[in-house]
Design goal:
- This protein is mainly alpha-helical.
- Helix content is 47%, strand content 8%.
- It has a 3-stranded mixed beta sheet. Strands 1-2 form a two-stranded antiparallel ribbon. It has a two-stranded antiparallel ribbon with strand order 6-7.
- The protein is extended.
């Protein structure tokens, strides 16, 4: 149903080309209007008297669109649909969605249904099989981690942190000293005592470093600031030594991402 809702949104904004919708993209029987060649489902949007007609056989999707109480299940896509509807209303176009019978009188779709039913009959009965608690726990944990990772990959916020920590579900190793661990965490979150972070929070008036040679960000702090030049040399020696012990064939690219990359347990 989520894919049907996403298709409905694309139909509203006019990004669904006629004849370009393969069967596998939509749920069974979703939106069947127009000419149907072998192996494809096409859709036609008809606008008459400033109305946009969209036909669907998914009652669940239609109910979600019409009833606000159902928005909690598909909040993101439904918000986009409602926004597109408001834009069309502003242009004087009314969007109308109606339910139709699925696969009604379409030969090749009927054949696909029959083949799908026949394949289901060949699946062995697994009703009496028992799944262990450990296996169930593993499957649920893997599914939650995949969903978490997908949301982290697509999130529009915290992109700087994403550069340092692109993977979720791993236990990060922190320094034994609490103050060092806190400083590291705040650097990952762009909430440190660096002036660029303080300026973003409205705590200081300028982003410029006290050394007067540039913006006080993480790169300047680790590589350029004249106040810590002696520490920079020691830091790079440690990085080169660690890189050599790891038997890496190429030279390290000295960057903030390299220095702040987390270590996992």
């Amino acid at each position: 149903m989520w894919r049907c809702l996403l298709w409905y949104y694309n139909a509203l904004v006019g990004t669904v080309p006629v004849g370009a919708m393969p069967v596998g993209i939509l749920p069974v029987g979703t939106v069947l209007v127009g000419t149907v060649p072998v192996g494809t489902v096409t859709c036609t949007l008809k606008k008459e008297h400033e109305k946009l007609f969209i036909l669907s056989d998914s009652k669940s999707a239609i109910n979600c669109i019409r009833q606000r109480s159902a928005m909690r299940h598909f909040h993101s896509i439904l918000s986009r649909i409602r926004s597109a509807v408001h834009i069309l209303q502003g242009l004087g176009v009314k969007a109308v969605i109606s339910w139709i019978l699925s696969h009604s009188g379409i030969y090749w779709n009927e054949q696909v249904d029959e083949m799908a039913k026949a394949a289901l009959q060949q699946i062995p009965d697994v009703g009496n099989n028992v799944i262990t608690f450990a296996a169930c726990k593993y499957i649920i944990s893997k599914q939650i981690t995949c969903t978490w990772q997908r949301r982290w990959d697509r999130s529009p916020t915290a992109r700087t942190t994403y550069e340092y920590v692109p993977s979720v579900g791993k236990r990060t190793m922190f320094h034994a000293r609490r103050c060092t661990a806190l400083s590291y965490s705040r650097l990952l979150l762009n909430d440190s005592s660096l002036r660029i972070h303080q300026h973003h929070a409205g705590l200081v008036d300028t982003k410029k470093c006290e050394c007067g040679q540039g913006v006080d960000d993480a790169f300047h702090y680790f590589f350029q600031c004249a106040r810590f030049s002696h520490i920079h040399e020691s830091l790079m020696q440690v990085v080169d030594k660690t890189w050599s012990e790891a038997n890496c064939q190429v030279s390290p690219r000295r960057s903030v991402v390299l220095l702040l990359a987390p270590a996992y347990l």
